[in-house]
Predict the 3D structure of the following.
Amino acid sequence: MGEGDNRFRVELRSLIPRLRRFGHALTGSADDGDDLVQDALEKALSREAQFHEGTRLDSWMYKIMQNAWIDKKRSSARQRLVVQPMEEDTFAIGEDGRDSFDARINLRQVREMMERLHIDERSVLALVSIEGQTYQQAADTLGIPIGTVMSRLARARNKLMALLDGLNPAPRETEQ
Amino acid sequence: MTTVSDEMITAWLDGELSPQQCEEVEQAVAASSQLGLRVARLSRMDRMLAPAYAETLKLPIPERFEAILFRRRAPVWSLSGLRSVFGDLLEPRPLGMATAALVVGVVAGSLLLGVPAAKPGFETTADGDLVANKEMGMSLASLQSGGAAGPQTIRIKLSMVDEGGNYCRQFETTGASGLACLDNDKWKIDTLSPTKATIANGEQYVMADGAVESAIATALERRGVKEVLDQSHEAAAIAAGWKAPQY
């Protein structure tokens, strides 16, 4: 406590921009993401004694946010509206030679399609592709085996690709 | 033809495979133009994810987060509030006679407890105010909390902005501990108490006693704390020469 307590708060403050980014990616809304950050900050301060020196504070906070969001979604009917179940075979990547993918997709569309992913897939994609965590760090943050991180990531990327392709179908080109 | 799983491809994109596994994926990609296109598209899509949320990083931190972390909402902090943030720095201890003298000093304004006016590091102005001398003033203006460079005999503990918008720094020096607040380009000593602390090279060798910490807590409570500066804000204030904060 004392200086250490203040240091803990200062370290939390330094994480806020990244926590907000993760919250935005996780919830699909900047406002909902900020509410999640606020909730996580309050939980972190009340649980400071549970934080072990030497572990990553960012991973600890991501985990608090992930759990809080899952709890919220479980108690909300919105879960059924936001996360649309999709058939697995619709997630196969088209092999039609499209090579102007990023030119047809804007960043808003990327965010919108991220919302369509299942929360488990969105979480792991946000941790690895946005927050830059390694697979092991993501596995530790989410409390899942590293193999599950790999499979969720692959599934999430394939789904996202299919969703974005569906937004802006490209003209078919002749396969080389 | 070598086949690779989606998991292998995604792990390859993330640099999570062993050299041998990388070679397997690269051979498969080289052998199939379709797979090559697919990998390239996945890679491009993945590179769009971080930029899609990058704007969030540039936003100012909302006041409500600052309030949660540093309890800034109260216009003037209570002593219990200060203790909750500063913890054992302000831990109440039996104060005895010293406390009464401190409280009298606080009520009267600036607090001096048995510190001779000629003490090294300080000087008295024509108005009778105790201020940091040139050398001490330079240290107060240039050091970051928690450390000191060179043969410094002063250590900064915390930096803050009081309710009046003045920068204040809690410091320890050999034989004394106190609070200095910037006032007309001078670090005016708000509170100064003798301690048994010895400071050398920025390190404190003997802890200050509870009476001193309580005196500083009382001074902070009297002045009101608008903001406790974190490392980045403190560094910015130092770089800006402690110009008046914008509130």
Notes: Confidence is low (pLDDT under 50) at residues 78-101, 171-176 of chain A. The first helix of chain A runs from residue 3 to 27. Chain A has nine helices and no strands.
